[in-house]
Protein 1
Amino acid sequence: MSIQEERKSRASAWFEDLRDRICAAFETIEDELTPDVAAKLPIAAELGDLAPGRFERKAWSREDGDPAAGGGGVMSIMRGRVFEKVGVNVSAVWGKFSPDFAQQIPGATDDPRFWASGVSLVAHMRSPLVPAVHMNTRHIVTTKSWFGGGADLTPMVPDEADTRAFHAALKAACDKHDPDYHARFKQWCDTYFHLKHRDEPRGVGGIFYDNLESDWEADFAFTRDVGLAFLDVYPKIVRRHMAEAWTPAQREHQLVRRGRYVEFNLLYDRGTLFGLKTGGNVEAILMSLPPAVAWP
Amino acid sequence: MSIQEERKSRASAWFEDLRDRICAAFETIEDELTPDVAAKLPIAAELGDLAPGRFERKAWSREDGDPAAGGGGVMSIMRGRVFEKVGVNVSAVWGKFSPDFAQQIPGATDDPRFWASGVSLVAHMRSPLVPAVHMNTRHIVTTKSWFGGGADLTPMVPDEADTRAFHAALKAACDKHDPDYHARFKQWCDTYFHLKHRDEPRGVGGIFYDNLESDWEADFAFTRDVGLAFLDVYPKIVRRHMAEAWTPAQREHQLVRRGRYVEFNLLYDRGTLFGLKTGGNVEAILMSLPPAVAWP
């Protein structure tokens, strides 16, 4: 196996491994919402009949008629007691960018072939006191090869301790690798997850990075650490709030804030728009949309 | 007053007049959902405390720092017993198109000044048995001058009689003016209101026309007739179903279908995208989004 093939294979294997660990961590949280805790929540009646959530997996293949294109992915989705809807997608796909698109991609101008693999996750929570979250890391190979990704938190009811913990976890992951990373990638996240038409941030941010091509082993290690930081900190934030009762007004506010999430993903998110407009897997791409939303 | 100023003024006055007639017709429907009818609906408990809906109006002004730009509009919104959320916007605005945008607009290539006025309406209904509906007519003046608009129906639970009645009303309005209009504008509607990423129509269609510049008086008369056809047929469709009970599964289906409405408006609708990306009135533009939506 060439070094490049070995790298692709290691990156894909990591994305799947991270997916497995995240799914296991989230299922454990589902088990922790015991009947006596659930009884204190405003949705006790709804939860009464609901077993702890478990992820369901569904594989899909990429087919675009080109024999040199292929790959596919696996969607994992859980509709649970704590996690109202959480989707985790892994994929590894290859083929040729369209001529227009190739011009915008590093290393694809003269040779439009690409290979891309990643893991991406969005969680929408039943409790408006538990923040929604997004995490994605990916590895792209054209004539160049780079990593990208990040994680960002969307609290519906702001909580300073959550925000601090989330940023601190990502900062620690960044600082292990480069003292400049956190400031740069935090700013990039704030700029990216901004609803221009409302001049509003989508949430409290986190980090966002792309086209990271310093040293392959170092970039891969950083990308793994971003995933591990997320895996460590988000469950803590969930546990901090999952047993707290909320008000109907907080739930209504959550549904309205989720509308902003939809607006961002359908109006601005590059991955969503690119995927939808180029025949990507609609079900996997739109798994990020919230289960219930309001524009009152 | 020049003939052109007089025409602008007549067009704007008509859009406001149509708005007033539509609001009055919809408020009458609200009054017709009497307590004994409401008691038979699955949301009787919710409706119990709710008075018949009335439109609330809110004026807004266009300000973009250019003394040669101006105008504004009035949003009318009703959250009622039959109409879960219905917005009717009228506006008359003028200014200069941005250089990029001017290249795409008839008659604006060399002179970017424009004047635009219109009425636009989206209704989302409590009952999944009553179709959602969209209607819009507008008059645009650059160095050219034209009318555009249309109406389209989005049933959640298909009903052949409704679809036939809706198309027949618009066909009659078209046929009064040109025997070719209906076939052309119906096809245009089907092409326009298509969710490419899902290869699905948004609803059962209606008519859509743009850049209509034959004879000003004839085009204005046609545009009025489109509005009047809508005003006649849609209340009939509402009345046909508003007293029918529905099932929880039908309501859930309605919330999912509304997601398609959101996807269309944020991914494809030219007016929405143009408005949001060029500093239009966000509240007026997004009034079209449904009050409650699900991506389960």
Protein 2
Amino acid sequence: MKSSNMFYLIYTLSLLLGLLCIIFVTVWSKCYRGGFAWDGTGMMFNWHPVCMVTGLVLYGNAILVYRLPFTWSSSKLILKLVHATLNLGVLSLAVIGLQAAFGFHNNMHIPNLYSLHSWVGFAAVIFFSLQWLLGFLAFLLPCTPLWLRTAYKDVHFFFGLCILAMTVAASLSGINEKLIFVLNAPNSTAPYKKLPPEAYLANILGVLLLCFSLTIAWMILKREWQRPNPHASALSDATEPLLTENQ
Amino acid sequence: MKSSNMFYLIYTLSLLLGLLCIIFVTVWSKCYRGGFAWDGTGMMFNWHPVCMVTGLVLYGNAILVYRLPFTWSSSKLILKLVHATLNLGVLSLAVIGLQAAFGFHNNMHIPNLYSLHSWVGFAAVIFFSLQWLLGFLAFLLPCTPLWLRTAYKDVHFFFGLCILAMTVAASLSGINEKLIFVLNAPNSTAPYKKLPPEAYLANILGVLLLCFSLTIAWMILKREWQRPNPHASALSDATEPLLTENQ
């Protein structure tokens, strides 16, 4: 199979998996957890998984912007602005998702940030915010020295993948934690270990998130699918002062 | 700082983090969870986290074999045999770790493989076994066609990283799950949300595992730290019939 056809096959698969993730988390929250509100109850908490999963799917698509062949005719600056804007959307979703969890905890007198899930998830949001800020300073400010831009590019790429892995770990531990809390509660009709339909649905959501992230990582890491840059020097991608380029 | 010095700095850090992970999981199981036995009780289960965490640390070191500059004077075949042997050790630890969990579950009449943690962890072990088998067939059997060896190399590398990410996700969700089960049990003196010393210890274990894996991923992905192969053709690493090479 031609390499570009293989790319589009995996890209289509990633879009489908991402869509399924959003559908599964919404159905879980809406049909099994009582739907949505912003009132400090469990319905407020339900925004947390929906925002975080949607944020993860959007993040996967944001880091993929430079790999899409139909974007290669666009200016690099436009691609960088799209990348930064999509990631700002991810950050907004993460902040709303955190507010939903904290609001629910505060209202129910549950401490915040005690579980390993919350530690890893919160660290992922902090890392993501720093990554966005440093990416903006390094690649979108024309006054940033070229040597710094070059030096930072590999770090930005690597931490982008690390944040993806951290969000997957946080999501899977969060789904697992939520299922234990709600299905093993005294008023539950079927415990987690009996695998009721809700447990199947949410477990499959976790598997879908993992598969989605693997397709994204594969497309990002495969060297031959990187954006070609025939007009520039070897150092171009890292060293162009992006806000002043006129491609 | 010189690039090789930076490598050894991160390598030393990874060794230290790996050692700390093994110490932390052993202290957790020994001092907080009652120690070790092979009798179907919680003491049998305690082998599960110890084997899995030790396996993860050994796996990180196994995939790093080709990156260590002091191994570069060795024959490629010897490196491959070391890589395969270390990974066989990882597989043994994973199998013992699974037996410990299944033996405990069966004795306590708890179903196996119902939680998302167990789905992801079990899938990681299955993937790891397939990866080992396919790696052996592709890179250690001299009769494997060169085109197949070349085609499979990227896939082997990518799935090696995926398995690392999956084991981290499984470990973090497993630590989180175990802490909820034991600290929120009716006979517990301090629930998880009060962050008793055991919760701190195990949460920090999760953070250490994450940091360890990030150092390994950084060393693996950084292109300039790959093993040089000046004597061979461009395709050498992928196409040498390894059991017949005489480097």
